[in-house]
Hints:
This protein has 2 domains: 3-106 and 298-330, Rossmann fold (3-Layer(aba) Sandwich); 108-290, Rossmann fold (3-Layer(aba) Sandwich). It has 13 helices and 12 strands. It has helices at 19-28, 42-51, 65-69, 90-95, 108-123, 126-135, 163-174, 189-195, 203-207, 229-232, 252-260, 280-283, 299-317, and strands spanning 10-13, 30-32, 54-56, 77-79, 99-101, 155-159, 178-182, 197-199, 212-215, 240-243, 266-269, 288-290. The chain is globular and about 75 Å long. The model has no long low-confidence stretch (mean pLDDT 97). Residues 58-59, 81-84, 107, 295-296 line the site of 2-keto-D-gluconic acid.
Amino acid sequence: xxxxxxxxxxxxxxxxxxxxxxxxxxxxxxxxxxxxxxxxxxxxxxxxxxxxxxxxxxxxxxxxxxxxxxxxxxxxxxxxxxxxxxxxxxxxxxxxxxxxxxxxxxxxxxxxxxxxxxxxxxxxxxxxxxxxxxxxxxxxxxxxxxxxxxxxxxxxxxxxxxxxxxxxxxxxxxxxxxxxxxxxxxxxxxxxxxxxxxxxxxxxxxxxxxxxxxxxxxxxxxxxxxxxxxxxxxxxxxxxxxxxxxxxxxxxxxxxxxxxxxxxxxxxxxxxxxxxxxxxxxxxxxxxxxxxxxxxxxxxxxxxxxxxxxxxxxxxxxxxxxxxxxxxxxx
Length: 331
Ligand code: 8YV
């Protein structure tokens, strides 16, 4: 059959994407959009998986074994809009012959910007300062009010020295922070030299010596609660924790307890263990800066993520291997 007469695959998109991306999806494929952007219920996800040739989910959709076991025989590609894939059961997808792709690389710089912004905002108490001003209670400058911690000359410990961890290190060097890191594998010597980064094989040992600790690794079974209650206790009482990766990497309850007790100086968080719920005790704390999972939220980034989704679907539909395949063994 000539390519022009080939039936177009049915692509079901679970959330509203940028207009330009939705237009192109509709030009290329038979596409079902989610105009009002309401997250799909579990039943709606199952229904989408039953009918779609290609599913385009985001971090807000749980594509677990229950959903995948009810998928229709046509579902052959899950082209996720985002880099993290912890919302997808990769093993079950592989067993059912479903290819999974993501959108790596295009949100590195934006997410690193946000992690750096959280380092600055938390160390210099920008959240508390802004709240004071907006409350109308600011009575003017004082030599001893709103004192934060100087970053120049301090140590930043990065957990996860992948693309985003390295991009954060480049920024942090500009602010005079010394770069330390823990990673499953030591990075290339050239990268270590460029970043003047010190590798710690032992996460425990690194944690005890850092002023700022930033989580930049993916959430996998191996990194769930990597910052456990025991490990958080190893940190210096004056240290701050930054997380623009995944909430599940930190034992959030343990961190909140320590923040409340003053055993940690602060936290800058863009992600939470049970999104979109945020621990109410966090909201009461002055020492934290809390953002609503917006690390990669730039217009440019979202369009580039969409472009990657388009390329992955088109390549797959044309019978080729899509460029951003995610294998269970890669994480
Ligand atoms: C994305 C993210 O916005 O890509 C990721 O892993 O955490 C976010 O920045 C989200 O995943 C979109 O699905």
